[in-house]
Amino acid sequence: MDLKKGNMKKWIFLITFAILLYTVAQNPEVIGAFWGWFTGIISPVILGLCLAFVLNIFMAFFDEKILKGLGKSKKAGIRKLKRPLSLILTIITVFGAITLFLWIIIPQIGETMRMIAVAVPAFVEMLIEEVIVIMDNLNLSVDNLKELQVNWDEIQETAFKWLKIGSQSAISIATSLSGSIFSTLFDLIVAIIIAIYVLLQKERIADICEKAARAFLKEAHYEKVMEVARLSRQSFASFITGQLLEACILGGLCFVGMLIFGFPYASVVSVLVGVTALIPMFGAWIGGGISAILIVMVDPMKALLFLIFIVVLQQLEGNLIYPKVVGKSIGLPGLLVIIAVIVGGNLFSVVGILVSVPLCSVLYTLFKEAIDDRLDKKKAAAVAVAATEADGQRVEVADNEESKTLVESKEDAEDSVRAENKEA
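Now predict its structure.
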């Protein structure tokens, strides 16, 4: 075995890695425990970076459009105000829009829940009557079914008894839920702080990362990494803006259509469809299915008509709006958008659905650039071969002409000699 100094580090690394891999294989629960501990620590950081990336899309608008003049000021103090003001305007815009949205929609949701609570008993009674009519028409016995009456007071009393019996479990669940909510709020606050810091220092952080990449990577690898990073940033930013725009368009179309056709819960259903539309391609189906369940409590026929309406709207969204708005914004063909969503959803569930489209866009662009590069190289090689062959042909022609000249010169010399001999 070659254990020279140059190979010693490699063998030590391989042996250590093999021992570590064997230890982990013998204790698989260690992986789960370590992963839970690691994600618990790193999740606020990841959330903060994601939040910073999303907010930066809006902040760039204020930086480049609204407060562009501050950056050109001759006074350093005024120039330094540009970034904090852009961040403040971004936070006010984003969180103000969210607050306004909740202020408008929460009362609508409460009213919808109240209407559903009133409609459920009537819906059940109507359902029983419809079943009785159908069984009557089929000459089936309906005596026992006619005696079936839903006593809602008894159901309520039973529910209260169950809650009383399970109060200890309920307290335990509430305590656990409170701890989970507190932990989530803490992570969210930490993430917001990280996002604010990243946005205020984004140029400095980007410069540090760029210098580190240049220091530890070869120049060719550094250029490739920077190209992929720029492409990824552009692709994900375009996807987020396109997805938000597409969700707003779909929610607006749903609201207008529901008002035209007189469907109930127009505002709540439209918001639900718009929010679920943030899930690429299939989100509208999810929102439409949940909405149909709400509408069926009021009028089953309207629920059926709503399903037809949402199918038409989904076809419009899936085949026209989404590929044109989102697909065009990220430079990805509509077919690849659909394939990316299906594959990403099957592999990584909701997270896979959300990141699959921009990730596929990055891979598609890199693949297309690689193809173009190879075709250019082949074309250049073909041109070089053609030029070489042309040079060879020119050399051959020149050689032939030179040989012909020599032959002619030789023949002239021989003719001269013969002429001289004849004269002599």
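Residues 139 and 265 are 38 Å apart (CA to CA).
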